[in-house]
Design brief:
12 strands; binds cytidine-5'-triphosphate; alpha/beta; 8-stranded mixed beta sheet; binds magnesium ion; 7 helices; 25% strand; two-stranded antiparallel sheet; 219 residues; Spore Coat Polysaccharide Biosynthesis Protein SpsA, Chain A
Length: 219
């Protein structure tokens, strides 16, 4: 079956602020959302792109990526993914991606798809470089960082398995990504090397960092 890219772009981008939600804000020559759409479009293994947006975001989404059939998201990321999965008629694999991670190297897609030959799921991740510590009123215990990873998207899954895992996940429980949902279904998830470019745009200053990466890449 086809390989589908599912991009969740239904958030409000509250921490990033700005006049429009961050996924529709401009980053260099196009909207944040348009960057990862372009990356998936030019990757030969991707057959279809499903984009999930929030209520009232149609005009901004169309301005960002042109005419497209948009799926309506939910109140949480998990619900938005669920609605996106429900809109896919048939797929062998699905790559679930945050619109807020605009710079998506083709090599990451390649590594994820290669890992799916032997795993139900695969995620890109990078090791933690900073010292980690618990915060209290004052500094708490340092947390050993050995074996801790920063998990990115896209996350790649066998379609039938991630759909089943999402269906079984308790509706009242939050999940920040889909790999934890697949794991809860009893499937092992492979880790492939992530990429610093995949850093998520969360706060206002992240736009400048993404722009700097982009100009370093194209110059
Ligand atoms: N997302 C979504 N539906 C939601 C919430 C988030 O599709 N109900 C998407 C966002 O659009 C983003 C990705 O999930 O591409 C990661 O979420 P996050 O970085 O938290 O984005 P926002 O929720 O938009 O930002 P904030 O939490 O600051 O409001
Ligand atoms: Mg959020």
């Amino acid at each position: 079956g086809p390989v589908v890219a599912l991009i969740v772009a239904a958030g409000k981008g509250e921490r990033a602020g700005g006049a429009v939600a961050k996924q529709f804000a401009r980053l260099d020559s196009r909207a944040v959302l348009a960057h990862s759409v372009a990356a998936f479009r030019r990757h030969p293994a991707i057959h279809q792109i499903v984009i999930v947006i929030g209520e009232g975001q149609e005009a901004e989404a169309r301005a960002a990526v042109g005419d497209h059939h948009f799926v309506m998201g939910g109140a949480t990321r998990r619900e938005s993914v669920f609605n996106g999965l429900a809109a896919i008629a048939s797929a062998s694999y699905v790559l679930i991606h945050d619109a807020a991670r605009p710079l998506l190297p083709a090599a990451v897609i390649d590594r994820l798809l290669a890992a799916l030959d032997e795993n139900a799921g695969a995620i890109p991740a990078l090791p933690v470089a900073d010292t980690l510590a618990r915060a209290g009123d004052v500094l708490g215990d340092t947390v050993p960082r050995d074996g801790l990873m920063r998990v990115q998207t896209p996350q790649a899954f066998r379609f039938a398995d991630i759909v089943a895992a999402h269906r079984d996940w308790p509706a009242d429980r939050d999940a920040t990504d889909d790999a934890q949902i697949l794991r809860a279904g009893g499937y092992p998830v492979a880790i492939v090397e992530g990429d610093p470019a995949l850093e998520k745009i969360t706060h206002p200053a992240d736009f400048a960092a993404a722009e700097a990466r982009l100009s370093a890449r194209t110059s």
